[in-house]
Amino acid sequence: MTLAQNLIRVALALSGWAALAATQLPDATPARWIPVLLFVSLGPGFALLYPQPDLLRPGARLEALALAAPLSLSLGALVSTCLFLVEGFSATAFLVALAAFATVAAAFPGLPLPAATRGAVERPRRR
User: What does the pLDDT look like over 16-62, one tens digit per residue?
Assistant: First the structure.
């Protein structure tokens, strides 16, 4: 594990807690809602996908970025639904659950990306 990968893991683990801390800022300021929006829409997905054990090709980096948002939003929908079902939904509970998930997920290696992006499957060129 390199230092850069460890820094990525720490940044991903702390991003949710930073978003939670940003909710203590005054209402309706961009410094409050931008970190929360970025974390909820990308944070848990990036924690699941990064860091990869090998360096990713540019196409694979784009794929990881494209997968991070749906993963994060799906996890957010799952967490908010569960909180609504137990009648315990609040912004704080929602962010704490996602931040805890991202912290735990950042401790593990990233999920493997499909083989086609790693060059394992190459289609022959047509003549």
Answer: 999 999 999 988 889 989 999 999 999 999 898 887 766 667 777 77
Question: How many CB atoms sit inside 10 A of residue 77's CB?
Answer: 10
DSSP state of 57: P
Chain centroid, CA 15 distance in Å: 9
Distances from the Cα of 31 to the Cα of 16, 27, 91, 97, 113, angstroms: 15, 9, 16, 21, 33
Query: Which tokens belong to 74?
Result: 């799906």
Residues 6+ apart with CB under 8 A from 67: 45, 49, 113
The model's pTM is 0.81
